[in-house]
Amino acid sequence: MLDLSDVSFRYGTLTVTDGVSLSVGQGEALGIIGPNGAGKSTLLDLMMGTKLPAEGRITFDGRDITRMPAQKRAGLGIARAFQVPRPFHGMTVFENVLVGATGGGRRNERASYDLCFGVLEQTGLIGHAREPASTLRLLDRKRLELARALATKPRLLLLDEVAGGLTDMECKSLIETIRGVSASGVAIVWIEHIVHALLAVVNRLCVIDQGAQIADGDPQEVIQADKVREIYMGTPA
Amino acid sequence: MTGYTVRRYGQHHIWIGVLALLSVLVLAALPAFAGKAALRIATEMAGYMALAVMWNLLAGYAGVMSIGQQAFVGVGAYALFVLCGTMGLPLIPAIIAAGLLTTLLSIPVGLILFRLNGAYFAIGTWVVAEIFLLLTAQSQTLGAGAGLSFPAGVAKSFGTATERAALFWWIALSIVLLSVGVAYLWLRSSRGLALTAMRDDAEAAAGLGVDTKRNRLAVYLLAAGVAGMVGAVLFLGKLRISPAAAYDINEWTASIIFIVVIGGLGRLEGAILGTLIFFVLRGFLADFGAWYLMAMGAIAIVVMLRMPQGIWGFLHERTGIELFPMRRDICPPKGRAMS
Q1: pLDDT of residue A235
Q2: Would you call B152 an interface residue with chain A, using a CB distance cutoff of 8 Å?
Q3: Which of A155, B143, B285, B294 could form a disulfide with A77 if both were Cys (CB 3.0 to 4.6 A apart)?
Q4: Distances in Å between the alpha carbon of B98 and those of A114, B79, B105, B129?
């Protein structure tokens, strides 16, 4: 469904993403891991269109979207939840979700209400629907990130370290929600440092180091691979 | 179906609606019981209010920090003097034409300026206004630096001084009602919600499908059109125009920012309340010369420190009152509670 071929991104002379080729299939759940500064968030930016690549080609359903801006990609069915929750603080939780459900004001508001309530129920936020988004605690803010993205009815959901900073219990409940999303047929690309959370959901794992992809395949096999262990644990003396 | 419903009005909005309708009727009938001088002040107030509502839409919602709206006030005013004064176009079509002209002009200006971000954009808007001022001052047809007087013959054709004051008031009232009406309907809709989302976080909004560029440009065009019409009607009242007055940043931007900030940035009611406060303060303080500006500055600083949301924001937080219902109240299905 989403295909990146030989995609590179640079800040000046610093290469952040270095010739990455990656495909995400229909309904697939792909996890991406890698050390800090490996270029994982940039990879999501490139998929969403928040950053545009210096080289390479990105297609969605065979259609070239390499230079397409984020708001257009949202219309095609790509959505993103940010690492640090970024709620629209001047609105209620419901209104936050409504922004996504109306496609940024393009679709009829009343016709979008049921979608909003459905998503709020799915993410366990329905009880907070009336509250200002700025008053939510961390777990609910992360849920709101997810809810807002789901309200755009995505076919591909990009998750950026959504489990970070949560307690074990909170993390478990968030994993359940994400699993539900994945089971409903939405493809997921999930960047995460908390590997056990990732492994609970994804069916494919990809490892990025210094902007390049060094492993890709079955999660258990990838995690056992020597090269991956080397990056995470260091080389034995 | 989830069983949840959304209510867009509160109980008290019926009464607010009735009150609003009554006040509009009273305002429309103002010439029946107010004199020339009072009508002039009312006209000026309506113009400022329209500018404030638009600036609030720009800065308080779309995140467009323009300090150059005087560019469009000036062009609109000059357009009227030329179209109606010199070329003899009837008054109302000339004012509408002035608004259309500034709207059209704002398209290329906006497309260029929106390439700049943050402070650069703000400075860019100011530079554009200064360029317009210089171009106007160079033009002999526009009276160069000395400006133009509105031809007495054409002014007389609008009636006696009292009749003119009434006519200009009705025009200004129409412009402000139009501005408030359009702003309200826009902000209440899901497109308005998208605008608010952009203000809070433009990148996140874009990721949800909000076309940030188009929304910014749309607000900018509307604000330019209103500024053009306001410039036209206010300088018509003065019957005299010069580049320095028409493109005055203090008059057409600094005062408007003061109004919006003390009233409440990002609230439609804020611009309206702010205009009333501004005119009351000006009425009391204008006799104190330079102290007047210092006092206004001090008041702005105190309000910003004590009530960062402005006076209306402060009232709204404590009482929950909205004059213009934007709310989306959620009503749970029977048997379910909400926090």
Answers
A1: 63
A2: no
A3: A155
A4: 45, 6, 10, 17
How far apart are alpha carbons B310 and B295 in whole angstroms? 17
| Pairing verdict, β A204-209 and A29-33 | parallel
Q: pLDDT tens digit string along B252-265? A: 999 999 999 999 99
User: Does residue B335 surpass a pLDDT of 80?
Assistant: no
- Centre a 10 Å sphere on the Cβ of residue B10 and count the other Cβ atoms it contains: 14
Query: Shortest CA distance to A139 belongs to which of A102, A176, A112?
Result: A176
pLDDT in tens, A140-151: 998 899 899 999
CA distance A198 to A30: 9
> Exposed e or buried b for every residue in A167-205, given b needs 16+ CB within 10 A?
eeebbeebbebbeebbeeebbbbbbbebeebbbbbbebb
**Closest C-alpha to B190, from A99, A75, A119, A153:** A99
Residue B198: which residues within 8 A CB-CB, separation 6 or more?
B61, B62, B63, B205, B210, B212, B215, B216
Q: Is the Cβ–Cβ distance between A58 and A7 less than 8 Å? A: yes
Query: What Rg do the C-alpha atoms of chain B give, in angstroms?
Result: 21
C-alpha dihedral sign at B5, B11, B13, B17: positive
Across the interface, whether the CB atoms of B208 and A127 are under 8 A apart is answered no
Q: Spelled out in words, what is the top-level CATH class assigned to the domain A2-233? A: alpha beta
Alpha-carbon gap: B202 to the closest alpha carbon of chain A (Å): 10
- A124's tokens: 């366990």
- Which of B279, B176, B187, B223 is CA-nearest to residue B65? B223
Helix axes B255-263 and B268-285, enclosed angle (nearest 10): 120
B3-23: pLDDT as tens digits: 888 888 877 888 888 999 999
A134 in contact with chain B, both atoms CB, cutoff 8 A: no
The H or E element spanning position B75 is helix B70-80
Probe site for chain A from B2, B191, B195, B208 (most A CB atoms < 10 A): B208
| Cβ-based neighbours of B329, under 8 Å, separated by 6 or more | A130, B6, B7, B8, B10
Mean pLDDT of A158-177: 87
Q: B191 in contact with A at a CB cutoff of 8 Å?
A: yes
Average pLDDT of the segment spanning B281-296? 84
Based on DSSP, count helices (H) and strands (E) in chain A, helices before strands: 9, 10
Residue B12 is encoded by which pair of tokens? 């008290």
Pairing between strand B329-331 and B5-7? Answer: antiparallel
* Mean model confidence pLDDT for chain B: 91
The token pair at B140 is 């002999």
Give residue-wise pLDDT tens across range B189-231. Answer: 989 999 989 888 888 898 888 998 899 999 999 999 999 999 9
> Contacts of residue B194 in chain A, CB cutoff 8 Å?
99, 102, 104-105
Task: Name residues whose C-beta falls within 8 Å of residue A37's C-beta, 6 or more positions apart in sequence.
Answer: none
Domain boundaries, chain A: 2-233
Query: Quick check: B207 and A70 CB within 8 A?
Result: yes
Residue B329 has pLDDT above 70, yes or no: yes
User: What is the pLDDT at residue B231?
Assistant: 96
Q: Is B202 on the interface with A (CB under 8 A)?
A: no
